[in-house]
Amino acid sequence: MTHAPVLKVENLQTRFKSVQRGKYVHAVDDVSIELYPGEIVGLVGESGCGKSTLGRTIVGLEKASAGRVLLDGVDLSTLSGAALRNSRRALQYVFQDPYSSLNDRQTVGEAIDEALLIDGLRSADERTRRAKELLEQVGLPHTARDRHTRELSGGQRQRVAIARSLAVNPRVLICDEPVSALDLSIRAQVMNLFLRLQKDLGVACLFIAHDLALVRQAASRVYVMYLGKIVEHGPSQELYDHPGHPYSQMLLASVPEVDPRVEKLRSAPLLKGEVPSPTNPPSGCRFRTRCPLAVEDCALRAPASHVLSPDHNAACIFAPDLHGGKRSALIHQAA
Amino acid sequence: MQNEPLLSVKNLTVDLLTAKSALRPVDGVSYAIRQGQCLAIVGESGSGKTVMNFAPLGLMPTGVTTNLSGSVRFEGQELIGLSEPEVRKLRGKSIGFIFQDPMSALNPVRRIGRQIAEMAELHLNMSPRAAEARALDLVKLVGISDPAARLSQYPHELSGGLRQRIVIAIALAGEPKLLIADEPTTALDVTVQAQILRLLKDLQQRLNMAMVLITHDMGVVAGAADNIVVMYAARAAECGPVDKVLVNPRHPYTRGLINAIPRRDDPIGSEFRGLPGVPPTLGAPIQGCAFAPRCEFAVAACTRARPPMVPTADSNVCVACPVVNQGKAAA
């Protein structure tokens, strides 16, 4: 990774006014991430941890309250008008639910045409040619152009949604749970489409998901988010094999096994309770209220980020021990 | 185990007639469940898994005419052909329900305690005071901290996991013998999912209930269920004990589904395994095996006639696949 990141998020903060007067919901708090050209990066965490808000803030669907989003080194907040629109085009979003992200009254052709018009393709012939190309890229027959989106299945609709975001030649796709609304037998097809797009078009992908197994296989690197903060990030294999944060470790261990022989050996569920409110996050380490390893020090100050191996960081005072296998949030729990 | 099953479904077919179209979401499905057991019904959306469980109990959208045939016997009583008032006596009392989305299953403008208590009043003829006491017991039973305070809260004040616990408490209020849980953990996080599944399994064993777990997620089956029915396009494809079906799936669809789940040892960036094609749309009746167009083992016999559910070499496992069953005959 000697080349420059295509997307760089620096100390990004998104906060919303709370219903409690004078208080704020810190949905995203001081988050920095990087995305290199042509890589798929996972962003995982429980619901309410701010992962969708982070994605939405990056593309400008939410307003950042602090921090910067740099696309190819250019700070998007310094741009306006046509320059901003041009940059935004390079940054596309794929939504979770392909049933609500497409207009039922449009045909597939119209839906894609709209995106191409925005891209400035004036000639109708040119647009038809490009639409054909896009449909092919996402694995739909070009005869699909004349069908209404409402006639399509979930998997097909998600392909149309992807074709639409590809229409403007983006460099970065932010995919927010793009396959969780799809049936299991269809999921693999759409996942393989993402892998192919990454290889063929070199599109970088921020893959927001709660399905950890899916992310491990698709992403080269993973960010783990908890209550508005990135608690750990690293290369997927390394992070899945040697997690350095108790939250990552427990999250990974709570994925159910298909094999009943393995599943029946499982002890009590690991992570107790749920994510606390982001309006009043715990002092110090935000995970401490659910962490079996928490000590007094955790409440006093936010833990520093430890570098565990190249490009693998975790924000926990025990990170080196956890990473080295000298300590475990799982064993502690069982005792 | 010699006694009659608590719920016995034989050759159940459901036809739905709307103003414009006729659908057959369930086509000749049979299964049984005994007291104290958990049966998982697994299938993709549109496979008929939910309709199959809800239609015999009169839980269908309005504006749709539902025609049922076959037999559904609960505690020896035939449910098909039962009048609505009689079905209503069972619903919520002997048969409890847990729905997928805990937010829409609860009344947003009434307190939690009242919603639980009204079930006890209705089904167990309890006085309001006794019902309130029972509500408190139930909230404790489903493992909610600070139970007394929770009773006076509204659903929006609770998180998804807590709401689902309340829905479970309501389902248990009528002391059901059978609990039907429709995707109880789909709307929840992995971490909360593990907690809720553990709770359901625990309660089911402690109260010696039978439980039907409807899900599309193979992952939740292994830890909770004793038996499994795999549904595909309105029909059962495979059924048997979980230990056997998940470890050694025989039907090509079951195999494909299990194979499609990413594994820890899959290389990063490798292709995802899946099934080719898409599930058929309901509507036009399918001549042969519904899975044949997507099946790599399909032979001519598959498209000729509908394959029957036949016991395999292991007589506990039944599979509706001519190829698998033919292999057995040859062996």
Automatic annotation (TrEMBL), chain A:
The protein, known as: Oligopeptide/dipeptide ABC transporter, ATPase subunit
UniProt GO BP: amino acid transport; peptide transport; transmembrane transport
Record has Transport as a keyword: yes
Family, similarity comment: Belongs to the ABC transporter superfamily.
All copies of domain ABC transporter, residue ranges: 7-252
Keyword annotations from UniProtKB, A to Z: Amino-acid transport, ATP-binding, Nucleotide-binding, Plasmid, Transport
Membrane-crossing residue ranges in chain numbering: none
Principal subcellular localisation of the protein: membrane
Subcellular locations according to the entry: Cell inner membrane
Top-rank taxon: Bacteria
One Gene Ontology cellular component: plasma membrane
Bilayer topology: Peripheral membrane protein
Chain's role: Probably part of a binding-protein-dependent transport system y4tOPQRS for a peptide. Probably responsible for energy coupling to the transport system.
Gene Ontology MF term list: ATP binding; ATP hydrolysis activity
Gene3D superfamilies the record matches: P-loop containing nucleotide triphosphate hydrolases
